[in-house]
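mind reviewing this fold:
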Amino acid sequence: MKAIFIRAAAVAALTLALAAVAHAQSQQFSDFKSTVAADAKAVGHAVADSARTVGQSMADKSRETGHAIAAGSKSAGNAVRDDAKKAGHAVADGAQAVGKSAAEAAGKTKAAVTGKPGDAPKS
């Protein structure tokens, strides 16, 4: 695409240069001048069409790339969310186990200090 664009731009520049020369030579070349102007217009349209095609192609590729990145990001985000949920549950389970263990230990300590109901306190 770049080669076509460069070729079209070179032809346009050459055509415009010839148009300037034709304009400088007065009225004897009025037919030549109109032909050159028409050719320059045709070249300009060809360049514009070529540029539009290249731009649309780039936009399509960019869109495809963006969608691929979005899909990858979504799956990565889901994996992170799942791992974070598992870690949170593990921390909660560990905290609950520690809490139960501490409560049991506190109950045993209290029972050891206060004794059984009906026993006299130890001095």
User: Anything to note?
Assistant: The mean pLDDT is 82.
